[in-house]
Amino acid sequence: MGGGRWALRVPAAVMAAVVLAVLVVPLVVPLDEQAVDLGAKLLPPGPAHPFGTDEVGRDLLLRCVYGLRVSLLVGVVAALVATVVGTAAGALAGALGGRTDRLLMRLVDLFSSVPHLLLGIFVVALFRPGIWPVVASVAVTHWLSTARVVRAEVLSLRTRPYIDAAVSGGASRLRVTVRHLLPGVLPQAGLAAVLMVPHAIWHESALSFLGLGLPTHRASLGNMVNSARGSLLAGDWWPTLFPGLFIIVPTLALAGLAGAWRARRSPRHRSELTL
User: Are the beta carbons of 67 and 246 closer than 8 angstroms?
Assistant: First the structure.
């Protein structure tokens, strides 16, 4: 029991610290993304710069916080959009059945046959570098699993006695879907959204690392890891380590929160939700 509480408290504390940092730090310490200080380049971690500086003398701690803010913005917005699209598609497929179900599931299969990163690169390449093309890229590639999960849940709910009673009472298919089926799948859709945020953060970081996400001067965790490759080969480890940790730690915390939520919702049934 105590272990279960810690499994929730630790990731919750980490995410609370992350959210507080990305909300408060930009209000207190503004970031000039064009500023350079070549006299302070590649300083190791110390009192003046706890995370050290990068190859042009910028403070890594401040840039990591700003980069994490971008990653969380992309992750949360893209997860919400993908969840709405996936829930609508899955609910329609499960509730209507027949040709609609086959058409939507073939569409899901078509998108799933293309690797996520490749499809994301194609979407981003259609626009100029920026946050919203990355959000669109992540949303387009991540609604598929939600659609499958919601469809399966709707098909399961359709066999429940209260659904048969509503249909027998003269309720229309639309009313049954809105009043009975959708409320039943919302917990699964919410869990899918939480689990999708870490995927979206990694997706944004990968695109930025490849030079296809945000402009190179913007504080982005993927951009920072990419620009630090030369420093790592020269033996300067901190420009790579700290942005990497800012990617890994929040995603693990979010995954831990989602796992704790799932365990509380169905403590006896621990089926995995694969995204």
Answer: yes
